[in-house]
Structures are given as structure tokens and as C-alpha cells.
């Protein structure tokens, strides 16, 4: 399984249910990786998507404790066991965890690759954070892009791999 996330310098990922950064190239990167694949998210992440609707051309799965959640084109599961059953029919390389914070933390041990857009800006008032993979003993940066700039933000794409 894969993680795909956009983080600040201090690994912040969100504030008030929204993304911290809107970078066109990052959105294209996300779309390129996830289109035609499976995306796994929490309910708050689903709610943050345009119109709270499933993303097109992807298998959308939501892991939630909310018993009555139903959305068009969204498969809902309520436990890790149920999620594992749903994912059994898919190649794990085609599965992307897209957030939020608690789901990243819960599924990180099951993932082997993380696609991280790292923005060179600290966000001190964020309320959601990704695990710092630079400090995590089981993970290491494997590839790193050149530095790009957009909307006054410097960023790079970094691929992390779980150490064997």
C-alpha cells in the first residue's frame, strides 16, 4: 500500500478540515498517481473533497466509525478487518491512503511507499499532522525531485520507502 500526502516543513497536513497548500503541480501529481487506482480515506477527508463526493475514475473507500455513512460511488467499511477484506481483490501497489491524520497513522505500518510533497514552509497553527518520516526509524527517503516554486511556495516531491 502507498501513502500520498502534502506536508509542511514540520509535517503539518491540515487545518479546520482543509488542506494547507493548493499547488497545481501537486494536484496533478496526486491525480496521476491515484487515477485508475484505489483511494482509502477517512470520513473527514471524504467530506473535504469537492461536494463531499467520491473522486472520479478511482475506487473510493472510506474507513469510518460513522455507522450510517453512505455516499454514491463510495465503499464504506468500519474496521481494519473489513478494509483488508475489501482490499483483498486489489494489487496493494494500486492502493493509496489519502488521509486524514488518524488514517495515515493507523495504516502506515501496512504501507511500503509514501509519496510526499514537501513544502518548505512551517505551519504552526495546523491541527492535523503526518508522521515525520524523516525521523521514523522504519522509513527512508529513496528519491527526491528538484526544488519547484508555485504561488510563492518552494516544494519538492519525495518518495519514501519502508526499510526492509
Average pLDDT: 96
Give the % helix. 10-25%
Q: What is the rounded distance between the termini?
A: 15 Å
The gross shape turns out to be globular
Largest sheet: 9 strands, mixed
Structural class estimated from helices and strands: alpha/beta
Number of helices: 4
Strand content: 35-45%
Low-pLDDT runs: none
Order of helices and strands: EEEHEHEEHEHEEEEE
* Rg: 15 Å
Q: How many extended strands?
A: 12
Quick structural gist:
The protein is α/β, with parallel strands linked by helices and 164 residues long.
Structure, described:
It is a single chain. The chain is α/β, with parallel strands linked by helices and 164 residues long. It has helices at 24-34, 43-48, 80-87, 101-107; strands at 2-7, 12-15, 18-19, 38-42, 59-63, 74-77, 95-99, 113-119, 128-129, 139-144, 148-150, 153-162. The strands form two sheets. Strands 1, 4, 5, 6, 7, 8, 10, 11 and 12 form a nine-stranded mixed sheet that branches. The protein has a three-stranded antiparallel sheet with strand order 3-2-9, with no helix packed on it. Strand 4 (38-42), helix 2 and strand 5 (59-63) form a beta-alpha-beta unit. The longest helix is centred in the first third of the chain and has 11 residues, at 24-34. It starts with a strand and ends with a strand. 30% of the residues are buried.
Amino acid at each position: 500500500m502507498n501513502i500520498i500526502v502534502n506536508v509542511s516543513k514540520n509535517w503539518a497536513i491540515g487545518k479546520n478540515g482543509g488542506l494547507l497548500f493548493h499547488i497545481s503541480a501537486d494536484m496533478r501529481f496526486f491525480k496521476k498517481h491515484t487515477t485508475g487506482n484505489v483511494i482509502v480515506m477517512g470520513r473527514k477527508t471524504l467530506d473535504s473533497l469537492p461536494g463531499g463526493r467520491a473522486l472520479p475514475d478511482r475506487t473510493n473507500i472510506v474507513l469510518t466509525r460513522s455507522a450510517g455513512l453512505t455516499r454514491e460511488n463510495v465503499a464504506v467499511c468500519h474496521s481494519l478487518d473489513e478494509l483488508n477484506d475489501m482490499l483483498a481483490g486489489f494489487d496493494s501497489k494500486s492502493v493509496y491512503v489519502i488521509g486524514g491524520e488518524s488514517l495515515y497513522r493507523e495504516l502506515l505500518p501496512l504501507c511500503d511507499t509514501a509519496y510526499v510533497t514537501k513544502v518548505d514552509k512551517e505551519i504552526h497553527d495546523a491541527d492535523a499532522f503526518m508522521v515525520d518520516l524523516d525521523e521514523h526509524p522504519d522509513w527512508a527517503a529513496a528519491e527526491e525531485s528538484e526544488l519547484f516554486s508555485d504561488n510563492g511556495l518552494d516544494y519538492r516531491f519525495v518518495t519514501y520507502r519502508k526499510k526492509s
